[in-house]
Each structure stands twice: as structure tokens, then as C-alpha cells.
Specification:
Elements lengths: L5 H9 L10 E8 L2 E9 L3 E5 L4 E5 L5 E10 L4 H18 L9 E3 L18 E4 L2 E11 L15 E9 L5 E9 L7 H7 L1 H9 L5
Antiparallel strand pairs: 1-2, 3-4, 4-5, 5-10, 6-8, 7-8, 8-9, 9-10
Helix pairs in contact: 1-4
């Protein structure tokens, strides 16, 4: 029997958790050319900026340790699922070519549904996941902080800098990118920030739905 990776299981479990919901979340309606195309929730105490020009939204935790962005990447041409896969690969390539200045080379964990290992942990995340009837094509990216981190208070050169990226199309007309990461120059090391906000970040992604 095939199993999903731990990260995907955590995200799926968030759907069943009523505790992180309504009272502490704020719902945002994202539009393209004035037409609502998807909804997304953010914790009420996070800093949120809506970017109408790119049908996008930017979020930061209240301590600015993690940041999440969603924005329109391109219009769908042809098969929507193929367009989502292409967009995810295109963005991964751009991320590697235009990495943050404090991060060294970035490796992309190309996901695929795999047989579980003997200890029951899958080798990789599945490439495709379903979020409220919307197909997401995901991947994890991993970089390491370079010598710029010498001036950081909470991180040092060589520390991991993990990121999550995915592409999705809520309307089969537009492809969106979602990315989140820990901010190395803020209040904690990137990997620690990502662990601290795992549930919150997963819940945000899992809240995306059609209007």
C-alpha cells in the first residue's frame, strides 16, 4: 500500500482540526479581472497584503519568522493539469536562478508517490495533492545559508533554508504559485521557523477553495 510523506499527512490532518479555524482566521477573496476565483484564510494576527495587480496575497507571521505568498503565474494554455505541472517546474527553475542573496544553491525535491520504506515513511511527497477539489502540484526546496548569515542574530552559515512551492489552478484558466519559507534575517533560524509554523502554514494552503 502506498503512503504519503509526513508533510502531506500533516496538511491533510489539518482539514479535520476544527480548533484552527473560524474564530481566529480571516477569509480573503482573490479576484482576477474583478471576478472572484478563490478564497484563502489567514490567521487574524498575521500581517496580510493583497496585491490586486497580480491577483496575489502576501502573509507574514506576527513575528515575521515565516512568509507566504500566492500570486498569478500565467494563463492556462491547453490541459489545466499539464499547465500546473509546467508552472511548478518553471517557478522552481526561476527560484534556483534567482535565489535569495543569503542562500546558496537550492535543490528541488522532485516529488512522486512512492512505496513506503520499512519504517513506514514514504520517500517523497506525492507530486499532486487535492485541496478542496483543486489540484496542487507541489515540491520542497532546500538551500543552505551562505556567509551573509554571519551577521544574522539567530542563524549561521550552513544552516538549512527550507521552502515549499506549489502550483494550482482554481478556475482552469489561470495558474497560481504558492510559496512559503522561513526568513533567515528575522527572529529565528529558517528551519526552526518552518517547524514552529508547520500547522499554520499547512492550514492556510488547505483553506484555499473555490468561491
Amino acid at each position: 500500500m502506498k503512503k504519503f510523506a509526513v508533510f502531506t499527512l500533516v496538511m491533510a490532518s489539518m482539514l479535520m482540526m476544527a480548533g484552527f479555524a473560524a474564530a481566529t482566521d480571516k477569509t480573503y477573496t482573490m479576484k482576477s479581472d474583478g471576478v472572484p476565483i478563490f478564497l484563502v484564510k489567514a490567521p487574524a494576527d498575521w500581517k496580510v497584503e493583497v496585491d490586486d495587480e497580480y491577483s496575489g496575497i502576501k502573509m507574514s507571521s506576527k513575528d515575521f519568522a515565516v512568509r507566504l505568498m500566492i500570486w498569478k503565474w500565467k494563463a492556462v494554455e491547453g490541459d489545466p493539469v499539464a499547465a500546473i505541472h509546467d508552472a511548478r517546474k518553471e517557478f522552481a527553475g526561476m527560484l534556483q536562478a534567482n535565489k535569495p542573496p543569503e542562500v546558496g544553491d537550492i535543490e528541488i525535491d522532485e516529488p512522486a508517490e512512492t512505496e513506503a520504506t520499512e519504517d513506514g515513511v514514504a520517500k517523497a511527497d506525492p507530486a499532486e495533492i487535492d485541496v478542496n477539489g483543486i489540484t496542487f502540484v507541489q515540491a520542497r526546496a532546500q538551500g543552505k545559508l551562505n556567509d551573509m548569515a554571519k551577521s544574522f542574530r539567530f542563524a549561521k552559515p550552513g544552516d538549512p533554508s527550507p521552502m515549499y512551492i506549489a502550483a494550482f489552478s482554481p478556475d482552469d484558466k489561470n495558474v497560481f504559485i504558492v510559496q512559503y519559507w522561513g526568513q533567515a534575517d528575522k527572529n529565528t533560524a529558517p528551519s526552526i521557523a518552518m517547524k514552529k509554523y508547520t500547522k499554520a502554514l499547512a492550514a492556510i494552503v488547505q483553506s484555499i477553495e473555490k468561491p
